[in-house]
Write a structure and sequence with these properties.
It is a single chain. The protein is elongated and about 75 Å long. 40% of the residues lie in helices and 17% in strands. By secondary structure, it is of the alpha/beta class. A hairpin with a 4-residue loop joins strand 5 (102-108) and strand 6. Helix 2 (57-63) crosses helix 3, helix 8 (220-230) packs parallel to helix 9 (244-260) and helix 8 (220-230) packs parallel to helix 16 (395-413). It has an 8-stranded parallel β-barrel with strand order 7-8-9-10-11-12-13-14, surrounded by 7 helices. Strands 3-4-5-6 form a 4-stranded mixed sheet, sandwiched between helices.
Amino acid sequence: MIYSHSYSSFFFLQSERKPSLTFASETADNSSNNCNFLVPACREELFPIADIVTPNLKEASALLDGLKILTVSDMRSAAKLLHDMGPRNVLVKGGDRPDSLDAVDIFFDGEDIYELRSSRIDTRNTHGTGCTLASCIAAELAKGLSMLESVKVAKCFVETALDYSKDIFIGNGPQGPFDHLMTLKKSIHKSAGQARFNPSDLFLYAVTDSGMNRKWGHSISDAVRATVEGGATIVQLREKDIETRDFLEAAKSCVQICRSHGVPSLINDRIDVALACDADGVHIGQSDMPTHVARALLGPEKIIGVSCKTPEHAEQAWIAGADYIGCGGVYPTNTKANNLTIGLEGLKTVCLASKLPVVAIGGINASNAQSVMQIGVPNLKGVAVVSALFDRECVLTETKKLRALLTEATQVVK
């Protein structure tokens, strides 16, 4: 975006060639006339050193001397004309295009044109979307993403935050605040859900298994209720052999059970299910959705865990915005096919390299959990277990037993 008299911000982006500059602004009265006096400076001084410019339709029109931009075809032409002025990339934003059923942005990198489409969200709370988009692009570039991927993530984040903000009512003006940090409704969320992630929640991490539940005649919700009543501190719903509709209904029930006990609930892999049932977060593997994309979809308040076997995996998880990592398999296990065992030394190596709290997983049970917790690294916060809890007739009893063993082990370490 570009300057207006009402508000202006500057975002410095580090590029491969040299630092470059992107303008971002919010125009209170949506008038392009306010920025006309700065148009020559933008075109002559700023555009040649910019990695990306992100004008909306009115701003693009002002930069192009009043050119009418009404259709997607017009936006494509405008992106090419703006690119001719010097910026390496152009994103023409079409969120304010009249009579459009979706939000279409045009991205041009000098060679290829991309139409980036997303849902149109009906809300007055749009003040700040441009600055947030530019900031998010800058942040993703700093993580090493390409420009196109950075724009896609930023667009996804803005859409998520717009949807979150749509029902907030503050002030009587034509535009309301866009809650880019997703915090204005925090009091509502905290009364109904969990507070932000606490690493101590990883202490006894229960991971469900539909096959084991069927074997012992337990429903998912019964198994979850038993483990949280027995002392599990966090629950991950890992249900691979269940239809999405059935999984969603079971997840909704389990989230409420966990919430009533003050225990965070996570969904394995399925970002869609996590959003639909309002779980407290997700756990994803190396072959699942990229962590930075999951963060953009879920927002800053949700918990994201990532499976990691190497220091490199741990570093990538931290950069991408994870809250914790799961490291293993520590011991051989039948729960996951072709799972590489890293042993206690491998676990310790990853823990020492990780900037995030760690939960150990893989073949951990009552006979070896204490050894895991006593490897002597402060960011190892707990153990994740599957069969040791759920491949048993009485989940409640096994959870209590393992919780006591872990508590004893940590007291010895202290």
